[in-house]
Each structure stands twice: as C-alpha cells, then as structure tokens.
Amino acid sequence: MQKIVAGVLLLAGSMFGAETVPEFKGGIERLDPAFDKLIAPEAKIEILATGFNWSEGPVWRDGQILFSDVPENTVFGWKEGSTRATPFLKPSGSLNGEGQGSNGLAVDAEGNLILCQHGERRIARLEKDGRFTSLADNYQGKRFNSPNDLVIAKSGTLFFTDPPYGMKKGTEPDAPYHGIYRLGTDGKVSLIIEDIRWPNGIALSQDQKTLFIAVSDKEANRIMAYDLQEDGSVKNGRVFFNAQPLKSNERKGGCDGMKVDTQGNIWTTGPGGVLIISPKGQHLGTILTGQNTGNCAWGGPEKDTMYITADMFLLRVKTQVKGL
Length: 324
What we know:
Layout: E1 3-5, E2 8-10, E3 27-30, E4 45-49, E5 55-61, E6 64-69, E7 74-78, E8 86-89, E9 102-107, E10 113-117, E11 122-126, E12 132-136, E13 138-139, E14 142-143, E15 150-152, E16 158-162, E17 179-183, E18 189-193, E19 199-204, E20 210-215, E21 222-228, E22 234-242, E23 258-260, E24 266-270, E25 273-277, E26 283-288, E27 295-299, E28 305-310, E29 313-318
Parallel strand pairs: 2-4
Antiparallel strand pairs: 1-3, 3-26, 4-29, 5-6, 6-7, 7-8, 9-10, 10-11, 11-12, 13-14, 15-16, 16-17, 17-18, 19-20, 20-21, 21-22, 23-24, 24-25, 25-26, 27-28, 28-29
C-alpha cells in the first residue's frame, strides 16, 4: 500500500509578508493500513508560518507552540488565530550574540522552559524574571560541545545529546566524543553513551524503559534503541530503524528530532519529512515536507496535533493519536 495525498492549507503568510511565501511541496504518504488510525485519510498539512532561517525544537507551553530559530538566536511562538509567529525569547542560546541560539526545547513538571543552548554550550532553565539558570555545562570539567536535543523522564531525570553542530567555527571541543548524557534530579551529570558519532534527537518509550537516539550520520542515518537500567545507565544498544535507504535527491534530510505517541509509535524526522515507525520498527507512513526537517512535537489542548519545524516552515497535521 502506497498512497500520497498532497492536501495543504496555508493558514498564515510569511514572517515577511504573504507575497513571499515559498513554494511548498508536501503530502501524506500512507504505506500501511494501520497508518489511517494515526492520521485520518482526509487530513491535510497546514502551513502556519514561514520565513525562518532554520526552525527547530518545538514544544507546547501555555497555549502556544514555541520553537527555536537556531541561527537567529530566537525562540518564536505561534498561537491559534495568529497570522504569524512572533519572537518569544531573544537571545535564546548565545547571550553575547556571537554563537548559535537554542535548539531543543522542553517543559519541566513546574512548567519551566528548558533549553539546549548552543552558544552557551549548556542546558539552561528560563526563570520567571527572564534570566537563565545553568543546569549543566560540563562533564568532569570538560565543557559540552553544543547540547542539541533533550527529553525529560517522569522522574524528572533529563537526557540529552551533545553533537558539535552548534559550536562556533574554530572552537576545539573539550571531549573527543559526541556524548549522550543523563542529568539527574540531584544535578549530577553522567555520560551514558560515547560511541555514537552525530547523535541528534532523543526520546523515551511509553514505559520509560527504552531510550531512543536519532543518529544524523550522513552515511548511516538510523534510530538506535537502548535498554535503560535502574541506575540510569544503558545496555543492549541496537539499530531500531535504518533510515539510510530512504535518502534520495527528492527526500532531503536525515534522522533528527523525534517524539513518541501513546501507542508507542515513534514519529521521527528523517529523509523526506516525518517518518512514523511502529513499536516493532515498521515504517507505516511519512508526512512529506519537501524540506530538511528538524523536529516535531504534539500540542494543542488535547495533544492531538503534530507541529513540525521544517527548515523555513512551521507546519502542523491533525492526528488521531495523542503524544505522550
């Protein structure tokens, strides 16, 4: 079964005026009958806003979707009924303006915005007075590269990836590896994986027992899975889904951000857009964006709308399944 429906709705113009909205070539590709239970056959991709440099790290908070424009050092916000996204936080990741902005965003149990700050090379919390509190910026005295994406467990433990994508040109990394770290509720940082090059997105399974890592290796795009142990360490690393065969001139991008729904399916950005992978590793379908696609997140009052950051675009698709 392969069916592509190219329904697209334009709800908002470009940041710089509707007349400059770039051409969008997208659609919804259905590869398995099970996909229709996740996204209805009549669903359309909605363009909410355009004109960004590189959009990333969406998260739903206080009735709006927040997302990073990494090179512009800005977090933008978009609310229902808005005609465009507006700046929410600037600077977002480089306080002196000389480095890259924030990338991955999350919201903790108290409703605080947690940011992966490329320029500051740290994980930080935005306080109510607008200041940042550094939660972690080094491991055993070695500064992080440029924290990229994060996920917060039900326990409050935070896991994050640390590739060098956001490092300032000419800066030498302190550590020889692209680490994946655990930040405990006690503030202690642990290096849990150090043998992956180019780790990117990160997610937890429904039962919090499996840690998924999206790997953006140009030669080996894939999703890795690890069994989480009670002490926070991992074991039994294995390839959960190999996305490399999907890459083509028509299907841009690699494995980047990802989220998990309440049925255990993984929604990961990858070649072509957002790939929906079953708990058993079967590719069920793709939200095709025609762009390099950075990340995705559920939002809305019922957590039943998938928001997607795809290069210059902020998109959304109504789903029939909710996000965790």
